[in-house]
TrEMBL record, chain A:
Keywords: Cell membrane, Membrane, Transmembrane, Transmembrane helix. It is a multi-pass membrane protein. Signal peptide: none annotated. The chain crosses the membrane at residues 12-32, 39-59, 65-88, 95-113, 144-162, 193-211, 272-289. It is found in: Cell membrane. It holds the Pfam family BPD_transp_2. This is Inner-membrane translocator. InterPro entries: ABC_transp_permease.
UniProtKB/TrEMBL annotation, chain B:
This is ABC transporter permease. The chain crosses the membrane at residues 12-35, 55-79, 91-111, 117-137, 149-167, 204-225, 237-262, 282-314, 326-348. It comes from the Bacteria. It is found in: Cell membrane. It comes from Rhodoferax lithotrophicus.
C-alpha cells in the first residue's frame, strides 16, 4: 500500500500520465468530431500510423518540427477526405470503409518506410520536441508543446461545438440530417468538413508518438491506441470535457500498470498488467452502454431525398 | 454529387466490376513499385510467378489460403447478419490455444484416447473456444447495445497477451530452449500432406468443405434465411417473427467457431505447436477477403486464394527485386476499397450537380 502511495506522490508518475494521455486526447477529439457529425471513423488506427510516419519523415528530411506536425495533419486530412468520399459521397458502410483505410494507411506507411530506409537495422532518429521548461508549472513544464496543444484543444472544440453556428450545424447533422437539410445546411459539406478536421487531429495524435514521445518510427508503434480512442469517445458520451477526463483516467491506469510492472517483485505475470487498459476499455463501454446517448444519425448514411 | 439507383444492372457488370477494380489497383500500385526503383513489368511478373507460377508456388499459396478461407468465412457469415466481428484474429489464437491444450498437454500421463477421438475433441474444443470468445461481444451488442466492433477489436489484444502468458508459463515447451513456444501436438493428430514434399495439407479439404457447407446453409436452411433477414433489416425481421437475438447468438457461435477452427487447423496442419507469431493477421485479412467476395461463401474460396497468392508472390518477388513485401498489403487493402466502389457503381449511377 505504501508503495502505491509512493507512486502517486512522485511527480514523475504524473508526468508520465500526461504524456500517455496526449495522443489519446488528440485522437479522441478527432473521433468525437467525426461521430458528432454522424460518421464513425475506424480509420483512426491507420491514420495515426500514417501521421506518425509522414510527420517524422518530414522532420528527418530537414523540416522544422512544427512543419512535421502540419504534414501529419495534412496526411490525416487527406485520408479523412477519402473516408468522407466513401461514406458521405458514396454512402458505403462506415465500418468497412474505416477498416479499409486503416489497412491501407498502415500498409502504405510501412511500405514508405521500407522504401526510404531499405537496409537499416537501427531506426534513424530525429531531435524531438523539447520539454517546455520555460512554462515553470510543475508536471506541465516537463511536457512538450503538443501536450499543451492537446489540452488547449479541449475547450476550443467544446466552444466550437456548443457556441458557434458551425458547431450547431455539426451536431444537427449528427442528430437529424433531414432537419438540417431543411434548414439549408448541406449535410454532405458539414460531414466532410468534420471528418477531414477530425482525421487531421488523428494525424497529429500519431505524430506525437514520433515527434515527442519517441524520436524514431517503429512498426506497430500505434499498437491499438486508435481503437482505445474509439472506446473513449463512447465513455465520454461524445463530450470534449469528458473525453479529456477519460483519456487522463485511462492514462493513469496505464502509467500505474507500468510502475507496478517495474517494481520488480512481480506478483503477477506482466501480461496481466498489459491487459489492464484493454479490459478497462471494455468495462467502460459496458458501464456506459445503458445510458449512452449516441448521436442519433451515427452510422446511418444520408442520401438527399431518401428516407 | 448524388447517387441514383440503377433500374437494371447487367450480370456481366457484376462480374467485371471486381476484376476491373483489381486491375485499377494494380495500375495505381505500379507507382509505388516505381518509387522503389524497380521495373514494374518484371516485379508484377515475379509476383505472379511466385504466387501461381509453379507447383511449389501453388502449394505455398494454397497452404496460406487455408486459414484465410476459414477467417474469411467467419467474417462473411457474421457480416451477413450485420454482426461486425473484427475479432477473428483473437478467436483464431483462442482456437489454437485450445487445440494445443487438448492435443498436446496430456503428455502421456493424462487421458488415453484413440487418436481419432482425440482429434475430434481437439477440433471441437478449438471451435468452442473461438465461439465463446465472440459470444460475449454478441450478447453485449444484443442486450446492451455495446458496439461489437470495438469490443471484438480490444479482445484481440487481450487474447494475444493471454497466449503470451500461457506460452511463458503453463503451456511452455520446456525443450524449446527458452523460446515462448507451446508444447508440441501429438504426432497422430497432425493433418496429412496433400502433396508430398510441400506444406499444403488436408486442412484445405476441410476449409473447402466448410465453405460449401456454409453456402448450403445460407441458401437452403431456415437459419440461413433468418441470418439474411436480420442482416437486411433487424427491426423488420423481428416484426416478421424472426428470433433476432437467437439468430445473432447462433451467428456468433458459427463465426467464432470457424475462426477458432482456423487456429486449430493451422496448428495441426502446419506448425504442430503454437507461437505468438503464428498468424500474420489472418483474422484481419479474412475481413478483406469476405468483402472482396461480396460475403459469398464460395467467393471466399476464390478470394482467399487470390490474397494468399499476392502475399506469397510478394515474398518471393521481394527477395529478387527488393520491393518491400508490404506492397502485398497495399494491393490487398486498395483492392478492398476499389472493389467496394466498383460494386456500388454497378448498383448506383453517380450524378454530378
Amino acid at each position: 500500500m505504501s508503495e502505491f502511495l509512493d507512486i502517486l506522490a512522485n511527480p514523475a508518475f504524473w508526468v508520465a500520465v500526461l504524456r500517455i494521455a496526449t495522443p489519446l486526447i488528440l485522437g479522441t477529439l478527432g473521433v468525437l468530431l467525426c461521430e458528432r457529425a454522424g460518421v464513425l471513423n475506424l480509420g483512426i488506427e491507420g491514420i495515426m500510423v500514417a501521421g506518425a510516419f509522414t510527420g517524422w519523415l518530414a522532420v528527418y528530411l530537414g523540416a522544422p518540427l512544427w512543419l512535421g506536425v502540419a504534414v501529419a495533419a495534412l496526411t490525416g486530412a487527406a485520408l479523412g477526405l477519402l473516408h468522407a468520399f466513401l461514406t458521405v459521397g458514396l454512402a458505403l458502410s462506415q465500418h468497412v470503409s474505416g477498416l479499409g483505410i486503416t489497412l491501407l494507411a498502415t500498409a502504405l506507411s510501412y511500405y514508405g518506410y521500407r522504401v526510404s530506409f531499405p537496409k537499416v537495422s537501427t531506426p534513424p532518429t530525429i531531435t524531438p520536441f523539447a520539454a517546455m521548461d520555460w512554462l515553470g508549472l510543475p508536471v506541465l513544464a516537463q511536457q512538450t508543446p503538443l501536450t499543451l496543444l492537446a489540452l488547449l484543444l479541449v475547450p476550443v472544440i467544446a466552444y466550437v461545438l456548443y457556441k458557434t453556428p458551425v458547431g450547431l450545424a455539426v451536431r444537427m447533422v449528427g442528430e437529424n440530417p433531414q432537419a438540417a437539410e431543411g434548414q439549408g445546411v448541406s449535410v454532405a459539406a458539414v460531414r466532410t468538413g468534420a471528418i477531414v478536421a477530425g482525421s487531421a487531429l488523428m494525424g497529429v495524435a500519431g505524430s506525437f508518438l514520433t515527434l515527442s514521445a519517441f524520436n524514431a518510427f517503429f512498426f506497430n508503434m500505434v499498437n491499438g491506441r486508435g481503437w482505445i480512442c474509439v472506446a473513449l469517445v463512447v465513455f465520454a458520451s461524445w463530450r470534449p470535457g469528458k473525453a479529456l477526463l477519460g483519456a487522463l483516467l485511462f492514462a493513469f491506469f496505464d502509467a500505474l500498470q507500468l510502475r507496478l510492472q517495474q517494481m520488480g517483485d512481480a506478483v503477477l505475470p506482466y501480461q496481466l498488467y498489459l491487459m489492464l487498459p484493454y479490459v478497462l476499455s471494455i468495462v467502460a463501454l459496458v458501464l456506459v452502454a445503458r445510458k449512452a446517448s449516441y448521436p442519433q444519425a451515427l452510422m446511418k448514411p444520408y442520401r438527399k431525398g431518401e428516407r | 454529387m448524388r447517387l441514383e439507383k440503377r433500374t437494371h444492372s447487367s450480370s456481366a457488370a457484376l462480374v467485371l466490376a471486381p476484376l476491373g477494380a483489381v486491375l485499377f489497383t494494380l495500375l495505381i500500385s505500379a507507382l509505388l513499385v516505381l518509387w522503389a526503383g524497380a521495373p514494374v513489368g518484371r516485379t508484377y511478373g515475379l509476383l505472379l510467378q511466385g504466387g501461381f507460377g509453379s507447383v511449389f508456388a501453388w502449394s505455398e499459396t494454397l497452404t496460406r489460403a487455408i486459414p484465410l478461407m476459414l477467417t474469411g468465412l467467419a467474417a462473411a457469415v457474421a457480416f451477413k447478419a450485420r454482426l461486425f466481428n473484427i475479432g477473428a484474429e483473437g478467436q483464431l489464437y483462442m482456437g489454437a490455444l485450445a487445440a494445443v491444450a487438448v492435443g498436446g498437454l496430456h503428455g502421456g500421463t493424462g487421458f488415453d484416447l484413440p487418436p481419432a477421438l482425440l482429434f475430434v475433441l481437439m477440433m471441437l474444443a478449438a471451435a468452442l473456444a473461438g465461439a465463446l470468445l465472440l459470444l460475449g461481444p454478441a450478447l453485449m451488442k444484443a442486450r446492451l447495445g455495446v458496439d461489437e466492433v470495438v469490443t471484438t477489436l480490444l479482445l484481440n489484444f487481450i487474447v494475444l497477451l493471454l497466449v503470451s502468458l500461457m506460452l511463458d508459463g503453463p503451456m511452455k515447451d520446456p525443450t524449446a530452449m527458452g523460446w515462448p513456444q507451446s508444447v508440441v501436438l501429438l504426432g497422430d493428430l497432425e493433418l496429412a500432406k496433400l502433396i508430398p514434399q510441400t506444406r499444403v495439407h488436408t486442412g484445405l479439404l476441410w476449409a473447402c468443405a466448410l465453405a460449401v457447407g456454409l453456402w448450403a446453409l445460407m441458401k437452403y436452411t431456415v437459419l440461413g434465411f433468418d441470418i439474411r433477414a436480420v442482416g437486411a433489416n433487424a427491426r423488420a425481421a423481428a416484426f416478421a417473427g424472426v428470433p433476432v437475438t437467437r439468430t445473432v447468438v447462433l451467428v456468433a457461435l458459427l463465426s467464432g467457431g470457424l475462426a477458432g477452427l482456423a487456429g486449430a487447423i493451422e496448428v495441426a496442419g502446419r506448425t504442430s505447436y503454437l507461437t505468438l507469431d503464428m498468424s500474420p493477421g489472418y483474422g484481419y485479412s479474412g475481413i478483406v477477403i469476405a468483402m472482396l467476395a461480396g460475403l459469398h461463401p464460395l467467393g471466399v474460396m476464390l478470394g482467399s486464394v487470390f490474397v494468399a497468392g499476392v502475399l506469397v508472390g510478394a515474398d518471393s518477388m521481394s527477395r529478387v527485386v527488393g520491393v518491400p513485401t508490404f506492397i502485398a498489403d497495399v494491393i490487398v487493402a486498395a483492392s478492398l476499397i476499389s472493389v467496394l466502389v466498383a460494386t456500388l457503381l454497378t448498383q448506383y449511377r453517380v450524378r454530378w450537380q
